[in-house]
Design goal:
Blueprint (H helix, E strand, L loop, with lengths): L3 H10 L5 E5 L8 E4 L3 E8 L9 E2 L1 H4 L3 E5 L4 H12 L5 E6 L2 H9 L5 E4 H6 L5 E6 L5 E2 L1 E5 L7 H17 L3
Parallel strand pairs: 4-8, 5-6
Antiparallel strand pairs: 1-10, 2-10, 3-7, 3-8, 3-9
Protein name: Transcriptional regulator, LysR family
Organism: Burkholderia plantarii
InterPro entries: HTH-type_LysR_regulators (IPR050950), LysR_subst-bd (IPR005119)
Length: 174
């Protein structure tokens, strides 16, 4: 299974896209990667869920509960399936969410628990949910902006890259 981050990186390498915002992954593509901040995955649970009283939870502990599963092809789904496989388990999920907003809405409705980047979960956090730290090394993520050759970008693409990098610098904790 290929993640969207891999597909985006390959599109940039083939010159089918000027810029790609991805989760930094090891890759063989001839693409320059520029740091775009840092994020971590967290667990979003309904307020009355059995895990709601916890501050931290391991991924293995979440596997005892229904998940709102990220859509196929995302790096997050790839990570979750890999972690579940290493634990000898499969995530239980009745619903698949096409977006982070949809994940939050489904968690709020009680369809399951969600795993989301902290930045996204804070932005769409419904009042009836709790955010728990995901106690896994793979929960720390490094978003990156990939370009084939920064010096060869069009003026518009270069301005966009500069804007993304400045935004990442502004969001970085001092």
């Amino acid at each position: 299974m290929r993640s969207r981050s891999v597909a985006i990186t390959e599109a940039v390498a083939r010159n089918a896209a000027d810029i790609g915002v991805v989760t930094r992954l090891p890759h063989d593509a001839d693409v320059e990667m520029h740091a775009f901040g840092a994020d971590e995955l967290i667990v979003v649970v309904p307020g009355r869920h059995p895990l709601a009283g916890r501050r931290r939870v391991s991924f293995a502990e979440t596997l005892d509960h229904e998940h709102v599963v990220p859509c196929s092809g995302t790096h997050l789904r790839f990570q979750m399936l890999g972690a579940a496989s290493r634990a000898g388990r499969t995530p239980r999920g009745r619903v698949e969410a096409a977006s982070r907003d949809a994940s939050c809405a489904m968690v709020r409705a009680g369809a399951g628990i969600g795993i989301l980047p902290r930045a996204s979960a804070k932005a769409c956090r419904p009042p009836a949910t709790r955010l728990l730290a995901l106690d896994e090394p793979w929960a720390r993520r490094e978003p990156a902006v990939g370009v084939r050759l920064a010096d060869a970008l069009s003026a518009a693409a270069r301005l966009f890259l500069d804007h993304l990098r400045a935004r990442a610098d502004a969001d970085r904790p001092s």
